[in-house]
Design goal:
alpha/beta, Rossmann fold, three-stranded mixed β-sheet, 11 strands, globular
C-alpha cells in the first residue's frame, strides 16, 4: 500500500514500516503523478480546508489534478468519501455536500470504475465537543431536539472502503451508502451518552445564525462558514433521509457502542 502524507513523522511507526510513503499533498499534480505510478486502485479523501477561497476550490479544485493522473496511469478503480443527498430537492444548496457531489462527477468522468461512499453525519464529529461534554455536560447542534436522523461511525466508512478496494469485481460508477443502524434524535443521543458516561448530558439547540457566529469567531473563512450553514439547513430539510436501510447499506457500529468505545475514553482523557 502506498500513502500520500505531508509529514511522514506523524504516521505511527508501525504504519510507516508497512507502507510506501510519498511525501506531499494529494492536491499537488506532481505528488499524485508519483503516487499513482504503478497503482491500480486509489482511495480518495479530500481534507478539510477551513480557509479555502471557495467551496469549489476546496473540493473540485483540490481534486482537479487527480483525474488527469487517473487517466495517465490507467487507474482501474477509485473509492472516494462523499455524502448522502444526490437527487434530493435540497442537494443543490447543501454546502459541503453539493461540493462533494460535484467532485464525484469530476472523478466519474475519467472512465475509471468509481464508487462514492455516500455518508450522513459522522458520530465522530462529537469528539470536537469532548471538552464541553466533559466540563459542562452539554453538546450542541443545529437540528431540532426531537428530529430523528442517521449517523455513521467513521470506522464503518473505512471498512466499506477497504471492502471495495480488496474486492474489485465492480465496474462503472455509482454510490454506496454507509448508514448507522438506527435513527436517533439529539435527545436520544443525550440519554445514551448520560448512561454511558454515568452523568447527565443534555442537548443544546443552536440556531443557524448562532452557528454561523460560532464558526466566524473561530476564524473560519466566510465561504466555508456559509457552506457549513447551508449543509446543516439542508440536513434539517431532509438531505440524509432518502436512503433505506438494507444489509448492504448499514454499518455495524451503533451509537451506544461508539460512545462506549470512542467517546467515553476521549471525554475521560
Amino acid at each position: 500500500m502506498r500513502v500520500i502524507v505531508r509529514d511522514p513523522g506523524k504516521l505511527p511507526e508501525a504504519v510507516r514500516a508497512r507502507v510506501d510513503i510519498v511525501t506531499g499533498s494529494h492536491g499537488d499534480a506532481d505528488v499524485v503523478d508519483r503516487a499513482f505510478t504503478g497503482a491500480d486502485a486509489v482511495f480518495w479523501l479530500v481534507p478539510p480546508d477551513l480557509h479555502a477561497p471557495s467551496l469549489d476550490a476546496a473540493y473540485s479544485g483540490f481534486t482537479r489534478a487527480a483525474p488527469k493522473a487517473f487517466t495517465t496511469h490507467e487507474i482501474g478503480h477509485v473509492v472516494g468519501v462523499s455524502a448522502l443527498g444526490r437527487g434530493t430537492p435540497v442537494a443543490g444548496r447543501a454546502g459541503h455536500v453539493t461540493a462533494s457531489l460535484a467532485m464525484d462527477d469530476l472523478i466519474a468522468s475519467t472512465g475509471a470504475a468509481y464508487r462514492a461512499l455516500a455518508n450522513p453525519t459522522f458520530m465522530d464529529n462529537l469528539l470536537w465537543q469532548a471538552v464541553s461534554i466533559r466540563d459542562e455536560g452539554v453538546f450542541t447542534g443545529t437540528v431540532a431536539a426531537d428530529r430523528k436522523s442517521t449517523m455513521v461511525a467513521t470506522r464503518d466508512i473505512a471498512a466499506a472502503a477497504a471492502h471495495l478496494l480488496l474486492d474489485r469485481s465492480w465496474t462503472g460508477t455509482g454510490e454506496v451508502a454507509v448508514l448507522g443502524p438506527e435513527d436517533l434524535t439529539p435527545n436520544d443521543m443525550a440519554h445514551i451518552m448520560s448512561e454511558v458516561l454515568g452523568r447527565p448530558i443534555r442537548y443544546r439547540h443552536q440556531s443557524l445564525d448562532d452557528f454561523r457566529a460560532t464558526l466566524t469567531a473561530r476564524g473560519i473563512g466566510d465561504p466555508i462558514t456559509t457552506a457549513y450553514v447551508d449543509m446543516m439547513r439542508a440536513k434539517e430539510n431532509g438531505l440524509d433521509d432518502g436512503v433505506p436501510r438494507t444489509a448492504a447499506t448499514v454499518g455495524p457500529t451503533g451509537f451506544r457502542e461508539w460512545c462506549e468505545q470512542i467517546l467515553a475514553p476521549a471525554v475521560r482523557a
